[in-house]
Structure formats: C-alpha cells, structure tokens
C-alpha cells in the first residue's frame, strides 16, 4: 500500500506518546515517588507494579495517577504517615499538569498531509477534561473529524466506535504506540493497525503483539512515515 492509493480510509489515531510526549513525565514522577518512599525491601519495579495495579482500578490521567501514588504510599509506607508526606506526594502528580506540550517530530506536517486524503479521528483514553486540554494545547484539533476520549480501549469500545460512526472495519485503521490498547484490542475488533513504537511507552501497556484476525498490519518507526503508506 502506498500514498498513491485512491482508497479513502478512516484513521483512528492515538494521542499520548503517538502525537506528543506523555509517559516520560509520568516516569519522572514515579521515580520521584519511589525515592521519597525509600522502601527497604521492595525494588523500584515492584513499587511501580503496585502503582500500576491501583491506577488500573482508579482510572487514568494525572489526577487519578496522584490518587494512585497516595494510595500506594498508604499501603507501603514503613514510617508513620504525616500530612506533609501526602502534600509532597501531591506535588509529584500536580507537576504533571504543568509539563510542556511537546508534539513529536513530523506529527503536524503528517496530519496536515493525511487530512487531505483520509478521515482522521483522534481516539485516546483517560480523563476526558485532561485529554481535551492536551488536544487544545497541541494545536492539532483542526486536523481531526472527531475527538474521542474513551475510559478504556478494549475490543468492545472499538466495535462501538465503528457502529457509532457507521464505519467499515476493513477500511478503518488504528494507529498508536501501545501494543495492548492500540494494537491488540483494535485488531480483536477487526480493524487494521499501524504500530509506531515509542521508547517510553507505559510498561503496563507492553505485551506481545496479537497479529491474528483479518486486519492488515504495519510497523513504522516514525509518525511521518504514515504519508508513505496512506
């Protein structure tokens, strides 16, 4: 498939770590928290696993992440919990709201190019208001026909999107960096997929790619390479 194709596709495009940097800031906040916790027996990876498990239960976004850090601290702290400790932990989370918006290289030019030939739909997950604010700060909203924030990306959510937007799975592609949420879940719903790895993808999203199913699949190294295929 090349950019010379006359087929017009619907391209579902992920946001965090596909269009702009995101998880590097959560990684730094997690590192700051682990240093503050100073657990005597648990490794950083084990502490992070507890954070991820709690966050999966609470939801996504910096507010839920902050709640997850506080809950983890209450669960794992080996010293008496002080009010000032909780306030310090809150700063790890609130700093996430103020990090710079760093759109990845080639993203805006590629979106502009693709929008002339295809229908672009931003499909992300997380806290709706937080994600909408990121979209506004990125100045990329005008390239998308729809902006959709899901509480979770699973096969049923993708199937509902196909029905809601009256789309055919065979001409719909999901593009993203997360094997679990972007690739595997959408393929199980019958979509085609484009995997664009990111060095700092959230560990909880890392899993083996599921490449069964009827959909086509591409692996690209940069977002800008999409223009060579669509």
Automatic annotation (TrEMBL):
Which keywords appear in this protein's UniProt record, sorted alphabetically?
Answer: Hydrolase, Magnesium
The record's section on InterPro entries has: HAD-like_hydrolase (IPR051400), HAD-like_sf (IPR036412), HAD_2 (IPR041492), HAD_sf (IPR023214), PGP-like_dom2 (IPR023198)
**Keyword flag Secreted:** no
Q: Which Pfam families match?
A: HAD_2
For this UniProt entry, the molecular function terms from Gene Ontology, in alphabetical order, are: hydrolase activity
* BP terms from Gene Ontology: riboflavin biosynthetic process
Q: Which residue ranges run through the membrane?
A: none
Q: Which PANTHER family match?
A: 5-AMINO-6-(5-PHOSPHO-D-RIBITYLAMINO)URACIL PHOSPHATASE YIGB (PTHR46470:SF4), N-ACYLNEURAMINATE-9-PHOSPHATASE (PTHR46470)
Q: What is this protein called?
A: Haloacid dehalogenase
**From which organism does this entry originate?**
Dictyobacter arantiisoli
Q: What is the lineage of its organism?
A: Bacteria, Bacillati, Chloroflexota, Ktedonobacteria, Ktedonobacterales
